[in-house]
Design a protein that fits this description.
This protein has 234 residues and is of the alpha+beta class. The chain has three helices and 14 strands.
Length: 234
């Protein structure tokens, strides 16, 4: 028979394993990225509409693979949007040092330019970025995750505070459309009006604050200069 102390350790380990299995990891980090070389990365529209599709062609990053998605202005694909709730895009963006999202986009059919946004939901509710204009041809886009660049989507619940959502993101969305951003409780998503577009997306990445990188470089240079000065004096 196993000693009681060993049984207790085993029970604790088993309980810890059960908790780990039942609670999915939320692992947003500066290495979070979708390049679409083999799959659609878990990007979805939900429901019965046509899902975003991985294409095995040369994308914006020069690698094989990108995502294509369309909206036809009616039925289940009437609005251009796609969301992701895979672990690598969930969790605390603030503590992970993620202060921006970058991506490439190419509008291949329909009205252009298209107003391209990103959005997040969490304890604060849904927040959508200011739109950026996407046109024909691959172009890079960066969305700075400062509170002033995002607006609360009315009716989406939560505290209404962007910092609360960014500290515990539960869904990440990319959307396009010329209308105002509205909340749809059925499916827990946001949308920006009816649109007719085909948009290709490539290399969605979490990025750090550029200013932070600059400060770190300055700090390293100062440390190196001080070390060099001490060496010369000695």
């Amino acid at each position: 028979m196993m000693p009681s102390s060993h049984r207790m350790v085993f029970a604790c380990a088993t309980f810890g394993l059960a908790v780990a299995v039942s609670a999915p990891a939320r692992a947003i980090s500066l290495s979070s990225q979708d390049t679409f070389t083999a799959t659609n990365g878990g990007w979805s529209i939900g429901g019965a509409g046509a899902q975003p599709t991985q294409v095995s062609g040369s994308g914006a990053d020069g690698q094989s693979g990108y995502l294509t998605h369309f909206s036809d202005g009616s039925s289940s694909n009437g609005k251009w949007l796609m969301w992701n709730d895979q672990p690598q895009w969930l969790g605390n963006y603030t503590s992970a040092g993620v202060t921006g999202i970058s991506l490439w986009a190419n509008v291949t059919t329909g009205s252009a330019p298209a107003s391209l946004r990103i959005a997040f939901t969490g304890p604060g509710g849904w927040f959508a970025s200011a739109p950026q204009s996407a046109s024909a041809g691959w172009s890079p886009f960066t969305y700075n995750l400062a509170a002033g660049n995002f607006s609360y989507v009315a009716g989406s619940g939560g505290s209404g505070t962007f910092a609360d959502t960014l500290a515990s993101v539960t869904r990440f969305e990319v959307l396009a459309g010329s209308g105002g951003v509205g909340y749809r409780a059925s499916g827990n998503l946001v949308q920006a009006g009816v649109s007719t577009n085909t948009i290709q997306i490539d290399t969605i990445s979490a990025v750090p604050e550029p200013a932070g990188i600059g400060l770190a470089a300055v700090a390293v240079a100062v440390i190196a200069w001080r070390a060099s000065s001490r060496t010369r004096r000695s």
